[in-house]
Amino acid sequence: DAGITQSPRYKITETGRQVTLMCHQTWSHSYMFWYRQDLGHGLRLIYYSAAADITDKGEVPDGYVVSRSKTENFPLTLESATRSQTSVYFCATGTGGSIEQYFGPGTRLTVT
Amino acid sequence: QKEVEQNSGPLSVPEGAIASLNCTYSDRGSQSFFWYRQYSGKSPELIMSIYSNGDKEDGRFTAQLNKASQYVSLLIRDSQPSDSATYLCAVSGGGADGLTFGKGTHLIIQP
Predict the structure, then answer these.
(1) A84 to chain B, minimum CA–CA distance in Å?
(2) Do B46 and A102 touch (CB under 8 A)?
(3) pLDDT in tens, B22-79
């Protein structure tokens, strides 16, 4: 049972390019979350989803787009990547919005 | 804006001793509290959750919550070198909008 998988694990892209980070879960948790982790800032919430077709902004949503057409998938798209979006991105799932969350392995994104 | 504060450390503790990690939060309405452990280059791993005032024990770990003082702590007994990691405190207000994390405390267990 893989739980949560993220792909790619590492990505290098250029400024201005569109890039999509994938998150897939096998637990059927209703909630899914995207965080970014940066030195000096800790983990910050980008977007979250309470169920398929329901998404909402977190603390730092600008420059990101999400969708959730299926319960198990929650892709995060950077429409036009900027260097400030260089970060480690974690997907997480949970059975509620305010209870335990379980994290995927992360994607390290570098924007050059 | 909700804030969660932790001492960044590093906190150095001898092997076998008790490690004490602390966290304060700003939102008095917070209802759920969590401790995550994160090894370098890895993802956060949930180790403890606590929802009511008092202590909660799980093996070598004890979480303590004092809502009046807006304070959460994590005690690690019989510290082992494998406990060396960054410990993240996370708080939820009870809504659907996820967790607010502290920046973490870097713990080093010295053999």
Answers:
(1) 19
(2) yes
(3) 999 999 989 899 999 999 999 999 999 999 999 999 999 999 999 999 999 999 999 9
Mean of the pLDDT values across residues A66-94?
97
Residue type, B30: S
Q: Kindly list the residues from chain B whose CB atom is less than 8 angstroms away from the CB atom of residue A25.
A: none
* A–B CB contacts, 8 A cutoff, strictly below: 65
d(CA B89, CA B6): 8
Shortest Cα distance, chain B CAs vs residue A18, angstroms: 25
Sequence-separated (6 or more) residues with CB below 8 Å from residue B59: none
d(CA A47, CA A35): 7
Across-strand partners of B75? Answer: B20, B62
By Cβ distance, the residue of B43, B92, B103 closest to A106 is: B43
- Report the distance separating Cα B18 and Cα B23, nearest Å: 17
Instruction: Residue B77: name the closest of B68, B96, B64, B93 by CA.
Output: B64
User: Do residue B43 and residue A104 have CB atoms under 8 angstroms apart?
Assistant: yes
Q: Residue A18, Cα to own-chain centre: how many angstroms?
A: 15
Specify the pLDDT at position B60. Answer: 97
pLDDT tens for residues A15-68?
A: 999 999 999 999 989 999 999 999 888 899 999 999 999 999 999 999 999 999
- Residues of A within 8 A of B44 (CB-CB) are 43, 90, 103
Provide the token pair at B63: 């979480």
